Amino acid sequence: MGKLFISEHPLIQNKIALLRCKDTSTKEFKELVGEVALLLTYEATRDLPLVEKEVETPLAVAKCHVVEEPITIVPILRAGIGMADGMQRLLPAAKVGHIGLYRDPETLMPVEYYCKLPSDIAQSRVLLVDPMLATGGTAEAAISFLKERGAKDISLLCILAAPDGVKLVQQSHPDVDIYTAAYDEKLNEEGYIVPGLGDAGDRVFGTK
Ligand code: URA
Prior knowledge:
The protein has helices at about 10-20, 25-45, 80-90, 135-150, 165-170, 200-205, and strands spanning about 5, 50-55, 60-65, 70-75, 95, 100-105, 110-115, 125-130, 130-135, 155-160, 175-185, 185, 195. By secondary structure, the chain is an alpha/beta fold. Uracil binds near residues 79, 199 and 200.
């Protein structure tokens, strides 16, 4: 079973309170999403392997450790973009892939409408990002599409998670760890996380 990491860090919790507030502006909301994503990235990369490297300081040679494993951030369009922007500040060398999915209104099955990934995705640590893990249908399908393209080491980062989404991802993809800044109580009839923060895409891009 994949790990479920729920951050208890005071700085993250403070930012979550601001994100939940309906009066938070689009500008501040987008900045906060990026900041929370950056802080979650710090947790999700704790186990990255290190390679020894000698570095010449102005005084001597120091034995150092560096990260050489390729990292790919994959935002699920469109709300995931808000998270990816913040994560790139911590991981400036990471590549960024994109995946877009919609739900077919008749079959209700997720359909991929866009996918662009780096060619070394199979060797890469993949950080899949979507702010809201609600029913889990989109994340579950996105992980399947990534695996079909060779991704082997995938973690899912979200701002808020609901029990349904966590359960679906853990059951369908027990190899995937989930990192979230908060774990909410439930979904409403429309599939929104409650208490949640509303529609993350609309709030990041100011479309409502
Ligand atoms: N997507 C959102 O943007 N918000 C939710 O609460 C659930 C899914």
